[in-house]
Design goal:
Layout: H1 5-10, H2 35-45, H3 52-56, H4 69-80, H5 100-105, H6 107-115, H7 140-151, E1 178-180, E2 186-187, E3 193-200, E4 208-216, E5 223-231, H8 236-242, E6 251-252, E7 265-269, E8 276-277, E9 282-286, E10 291-299, E11 306-307, E12 310-315, H9 318-323, E13 329-330, E14 332-337, E15 341-342, H10 355-366, H11 368-381, E16 395-403, E17 407-415, E18 420-427, E19 435-440, E20 458-459, E21 464-472, E22 485-486, E23 497-503
Parallel strand pairs: 9-13
Antiparallel strand pairs: 1-12, 2-11, 3-6, 3-10, 4-8, 4-9, 4-12, 5-7, 5-10, 14-23, 15-22, 16-21, 17-20, 17-23, 18-19, 18-21
Bound molecules: heme C (HEC).
C-alpha cells in the first residue's frame, strides 16, 4: 500500500542512473520575534558614519585589564563575521562591521547575539569528528572574549576609523554559463514570512550536465533562505498548474507538495552560503524538459519589494565530458527519515492530544499517503508509539539506525521544523569506527544549510547511520490548539530528516 518514491528512499535505496526521485521536504514558516532588535539596529546603523562620537567616549584607559579590541576581538570578527557584515555581504542590511567605531556602537547587540550563539550562524556544536567547508565557527574562548569585551565597556584601543577587513575563508565563485531569473519578479505578499515556490527553467534542448549551481539573491535583506529541487520533466505539468494560480508568479508553498512533485533535494541555501560545486567528474544530469523548483523564504523587514532572485549554473565543458566518455558520475541523493512521535506534555490538553485523532487531522489535510508516513517510519525504525508514551515532560527524542549509502559524501542537509532543538547524525554508532558527522545542539529553523565535508568522507558497504532528533514542546506556538505531533509536512507538524548528496566511487 505504501509504495512510492518516498518510501523507497526511507530504505536508503537509490536509483541506478540518477538522483533518487525521493521525498520533498515540507517547510514551514517561523514568525520572527527579533524584528524589534532589527529596527533598533537599523536606527543605530543609520548613523553609520557619525558613530565616532559614541565610540570615542569609550577610549581605553590605562588600568584596563580586559580583552583588547585590536589584539583579541577584532581578529575574531575579521575571521568570522566581516565577510557577511561588510560591503555587499548578506548581513550588511542589518549591521555593518566596517570600522572599529561601528563595532563599538553595536557592541551590546554583538554581545547578546554571540552569547546566545545566534551569531555567527553556524549551527554545528563542534562535537563532530568531521570538518566542514566554510565554517564561520568561533571557539568558546573566542565567544567569551567578545562577551567580556562588551561587558567591560566595549573600549577601543585603536582609532575609531580603523578598518576591519574580511579574512575568513571565502566561498569560491562560480563562473555561470547560464543565469536564470524568472521573467516576472515576485511582488511582496504582505505576509511577514512568505514561502514562495518558483519554477526555474534552464530550457535545455539536449541532455546536459551541471557542475555547479549558485543562488543569486536579488532582494538580499528580505531573503531568508532557499531550497532547491529538481523538477523532472514527467511531473512538470503538476507544478505548472500551481504556478500563477493565485494571480502572482509562482505559488505559495509553506510546504512543498509531497505527491505532486517528487524531487531529489539539492540542498538548502542560507544567506552567506556559497555555491554548490560538485566534486570533479560529478554532475547533475538534466534531460530536456527537466527544470528546478526553488522554494524562496522571504522575511520582510521593509516595505513592498519585488524580487527577482535566480540561479547561476555552470555546465560541464566539452573537454570534461569527452574525458569521461560523454557522461559524468551523477549526483545521487538519499533521504533518511527518523520517527516523529511527540506526545502532548502533561500540562497540555485537548482532543488532538489523542494520537489517532492527530493522524485523522493529517489525513484530512494532506491525504491518506501522508497519514501513513508516521506508521511507516516507525516500522522502518522498529518502534511503536508506545516507545514514546512516557515522553510527556515537555521534551521528546527519537532515533533510527539505517544503512548508509555507499560512496563519497558531498553534502549533508539535516531538517526539522520549529519544535526541533537538537539533531545528530552518527556513522557506525557503538562501534570502534564511530564518527559523529553532524551535531547541532541548538537547532535553528532559520539557518539551515547543507554541510560539505572539507576532506574526503567515504561510506562503505555495511556502514550504518544513526539519525537522532530532539524536540521541545515549550516551543509550541501560542494560540494554536495543542496536538500530538507526528511526521508530516504542515506548519506545526515535525520532521526528523536528512538528505545526503553523494557519488558512487
Ligand atoms: C554567513 C553570514 C554571516 C556571518 C558569518 C555572521 N553574520 Fe551576523 N548576520 C547575518 C545576517 C544575514 C543577519 C540578519 C538576519 C538575522 O538576524 O537572522 C545577521 C545579523 C546579525 C546581528 C543582528 C541581529 C538581529 O537580531 O538583527 C548581529 C549583532 C550580528 N549578525 C553579529 C554577528 C557577529 C558578531 C558575527 C561573527 C561572530 C556574525 N554576525 C557573523 C549574517 C552573518
Amino acid at each position: 500500500m505504501l509504495a512510492g518514491p518516498l518510501f523507497a528512499a526511507c530504505a536508503s535505496t537509490s536509483s541506478e542512473t540518477e538522483q533518487t526521485t525521493t521525498t520533498n521536504v515540507a517547510r514551514d514558516e517561523t514568525p520572527s520575534t527579533r524584528s524589534t532588535i532589527k529596527s533598533t539596529i537599523k536606527s543605530t546603523t543609520g548613523v553609520e558614519a557619525e558613530t565616532t562620537e559614541a565610540a570615542s567616549l569609550t577610549t581605553i584607559g590605562p588600568d584596563y585589564g580586559g580583552p583588547s579590541f585590536a589584539d583579541d576581538v577584532m581578529p575574531v570578527l575579521e575571521q568570522n563575521c566581516v565577510s557577511c557584515h561588510s560591503s555587499s555581504g548578506p548581513g550588511t542590511a542589518h549591521v555593518r562591521f566596517e570600522t572599529a567605531a561601528q563595532v563599538a556602537t553595536l557592541a551590546d547587540f554583538i554581545g547578546s547575539e554571540v552569547e546566545d550563539r545566534h551569531m555567527p550562524p553556524w549551527r554545528l556544536s563542534g562535537l563532530e569528528d568531521v570538518k566542514y567547508k566554510y565554517s564561520p565557527r568561533i571557539t568558546n574562548e573566542e565567544r567569551q572574549t567578545i562577551v567580556d569585551w562588551v561587558n567591560q565597556g566595549a573600549t577601543l584601543d585603536l582609532a575609531d576609523d580603523a578598518a576591519l577587513v574580511a579574512r575568513g575563508q571565502t566561498h569560491p565563485t562560480v563562473e555561470a554559463d547560464l543565469v536564470l531569473r524568472p521573467d516576472d519578479a515576485y511582488p511582496d505578499s504582505g505576509q511577514l514570512d512568505d514561502y514562495r515556490c518558483r519554477i526555474i527553467d534552464p530550457a535545455f534542448g539536449e541532455p546536459s550536465w551541471i557542475r555547479a549551481i549558485e543562488v543569486l539573491p536579488d532582494q538580499k535583506p528580505n531573503l531568508h533562505h532557499a531550497v532547491l529541487f529538481k523538477l523532472f520533466d514527467d511531473v512538470r505539468g503538476q507544478a505548472e498548474q500551481l504556478d500563477g494560480s493565485d494571480g502572482k508568479p509562482g505559488w505559495s508553498c509553506p510546504t512543498v507538495p509531497l505527491q505532486a512533485v517528487p524531487l531529489p533535494n539539492l540542498g538548502g541555501w542560507a544567506p552567506g552560503a556559497g555555491p554548490i560545486i560538485l566534486p570533479e567528474r560529478t554532475g547533475i544530469q538534466m534531460k530536456p524538459g527537466d527544470a528546478f523548483i526553488v522554494q524562496w523564504h522571504y522575511h520582510y523587514d521593509s516595505g513592498p519589494i519585488e524580487d527577482n532572485s535566480g540561479l547561476g549554473i555552470q555546465l560541464a565543458t566539452k573537454a570534461e565530458l569527452e574525458n569521461d566518455g560523454g557522461r559524468l558520475e551523477p549526483l545521487r541523493s538519499v533521504q533518511l527519515l527518523g520517527p516523529v512521535e511527540i506526545p502532548c506534555s502533561r500540562n497540555e490538553q485537548g482532543p488532538l492530544c489523542d494520537r489517532d485523532r492527530a493522524i485523522d487531522r493529517i489525513r484530512q489535510e494532506f491525504g491518506d499517503q501522508a497519514a501513513g508516513i508516521p506508521g511507516f517510519v516507525n516500522r522502518l525504525c522498529g518502534v511503536t508509539p508506545a516507545t514514546y508514551a512516557q515522553m510527556i515532560d515537555g521534551q521528546a527524542s527519537s532515533s533510527c539506525d539505517l544503512p548508509a549509502p555507499v560512496g563519497h559524501i558531498i553534502s549533508i542537509w539535516p531538517h526539522m521544523h520549529e519544535l526541533g532543538i537538537g539533531y545528530r547524525l552518527t556513522l557506525n554508532p557503538g562501534t570502534q569506527n564511530e564518527k559523529v558527522l553532524v551535531d547541532i545542539d541548538q537547532w535553528d529553523f532559520q539557518w539551515q544549510t547543507g554541510y560539505s565535508p572539507a576532506e574526503p568522507l567515504v561510506f562503505e558497504r555495511g556502514d550504518a547511520l544513526r539519525i537522532e532528533c530532539k524536540w521541545d514542546r515549550s516551543l509550541w506556538p501560542e494560540g494554536v490548539e495543542s496536538r500530538y505531533v507526528v511526521w508530516a509536512e504542515g506548519t506545526h507538524d515535525e520532521m526528523c530528516y536528512t538528505s545526503i548528496g553523494y557519488r558512487r566511487g
